[in-house]
Amino acid sequence: MNRGGLPEMLHCLHAAASEGADISVLDRQRSRHKWQQDQLLIQQHHQQNQPLPYFSDNSDQLGGVFMSLNGDHGGLHELLLGGAMKPDPGLENGWGGDLVGGLNYASELEKNYAIQRTVSCPPDVAAAKIAAQEAALSSAAGRESSKKRKADKTQTLKVIAEEKTEEKKMKECFEEDSKITEQNSNNNNKSSTITTATNSKDNNNNSKEFPKTDYIHVRARRGQATDSHSLAERVRREKISERMKYLQDLVPGCDKITGKAGMLDEIINYVQSLQRQVEFLSMKLAVINPRLDFDVENYHTKQNFTGCSSSVPTIGTPSEMMDQSLLQFNSLGQEVSGSILEMLVNPMDVSLRRTISAPVSVPHPFLDSSSLNQQIQHVTWEDEFQNIYNME
Amino acid sequence: MKSRMPENRSESMKQEFLKKWIKGLQIYSKNSNKMTILDRKNAIKQSADVAIASTRNAETQWSRAVMARIASKNETVVEKILGRKVLLVDKNKSRSIITCSKKIVRRSIVNAHRKKARVVRSISSVVEDGSIIAKKMVKKRTRVLKRLVPGGEQMDEVSLIKETLDYIASLQVQVDVMRNIAAAAEILGRTERLSF
């Protein structure tokens, strides 16, 4: 009967709990009292209806009271569990505080029950009322100090610990009682111990859940900050690495190097070599050209010849033209080819037109400084350059 | 040379650079009747630098820094030449470049002094701290790179790498064209000598 009633009540309370977090503790208590009174009535009725030996009857009643208490306890924990299971909105509405109140209330109730058990009389309404008031107060305080949720949570943890100790005490009491009471009540006690065990488990779950939710919440907060920061940092690093990749493509001999320092080394070397090449080439040009307007004259003649450049009998496509010019450039060191002979006739125009109109893309060996040096060695120009330099 | 840059872009850049360079040379030659070989070399280099910088239309920091540096190096006369030259090169954007360049010159000079002082301090502190080697190495190299890339002292790391990318591409174009011109001039010189 009691066992039948327990899940019923649990269900009822659970439903009430799951109905919403807005149900005040008082309401819950009222419903519980109602149920308890009903239960007692039913019990009495049952006793009257079922003629049992007095001894066993009494024990049954006792057990029933116990059971009701335990059931109540379980229901409360169910409630708490339901409240705790409620996701974020509950937490945000100061459920933590409410829960604190609830837990305080639970401990209060347990104290009351201890008294009740010793007296073995129907629940003391006044004490319950006081407890309810306290709970309401504490819950209000919890709501007020929702900002100090952390402190509250530590409080709740303490409360839970207290509750656990009280539960242990209760268990001991139950055991003592079970020694006194008969088998029937013994069974009840067993079930009650089981329920308390489950309750304690629930409590553990609760206590586990608290830091968990707290952790997630805090992480969300901190995470937002760190997340945006780390995101920005990541974006920056990605940008750098992406550009470093491009640089790796651009700088020859940088493909095989891993590591930023090595790549930077290569880049530095390459930039330096390019800058030196510019220096060197400008020096070279300065040496070669006795006057600065040397190129300019050519440029002018080239401009005059722009109309003719299309009609120049070179091979049609610019790429082929380019190739030809490259051939010329490559073969200069060794011998004067036919095309250069052609250039001799009309030297500057052709060469410059080639360099300008067929924008020069030189093959790789040509760009290498080593090949350049080789080329220079071929040419008598270097000696001349040195002579001039010594003269200066 | 593997051309990583899109062909069209690099070729158009080369043409632009060559045009501007030759115009710059023209102006230099007009202003200087008698030049030593070093003067000529400087003139060629500066005109080439300005030309390659002006191909970027002052979009990049390094090109602006190059313009400013060259304007600051050679005093008012060269500045005038540059101004004229820039006007010749690009009528629309030249004025902004010139007006910018004067400001930048002052700024860059001041900043360069400041940054130098800072760099010296930071080097000493880093050495004293003796933090992680890899980071130190990267920092050191970044500093060197900042010195190499014109106007790099004022850049942060991200923009430094971006500018370096652009600068290297431009330098490649510059070196390419100059080398070809030099080769052509060489041939011509040789042929002239031969013909003599």
Features:
heterodimer; A: 392 residues; mainly alpha; MYOD Basic-Helix-Loop-Helix Domain, subunit B; 83% helix; rod-shaped; disordered N terminus; B: 196 residues; 7 helices; protein dimerization activity (chain A)
Write structural notes for this entry.
Chain B: Keywords: Nucleus, Transcription, Transcription regulation. Chain B: It is found in: Nucleus. Chain B: Its main location: nucleus. Chain B: InterPro entries: HLH_DNA-bd_sf, IBH1-like, IBH1_N. Chain B: It comes from Erythranthe guttata (Yellow monkey flower). Chain A: Keywords: Nucleus, Transcription, Transcription regulation. The complex is a heterodimer of chains A (392) and B (196). Chain A has a domain at 228-291: MYOD Basic-Helix-Loop-Helix Domain, subunit B. In chain A, α5 (95-119) runs parallel beside α7 (149-180), α10 (293-304) crosses α14 (347-357) and α13 crosses α14 (347-357). Mean pLDDT of chain A is 51; it is low at 1-7, 12-23, 50-132, 135-163, 172-221 and 299-392. By secondary structure, chain A is mainly α. Helices cover 83% and strands 0% of the residues of chain A. Chain B has 196 residues and is mainly α. Chain B has one domain (7-88, 126-195). Residues 1-5 and 84-98 of chain B have low confidence and may be disordered. Classes of the chains: A mainly alpha (392), B mainly alpha (196). At the A-B interface, α8, α9, α10, α13 and α14 of A face α1, α2, α6 and α7 of B.
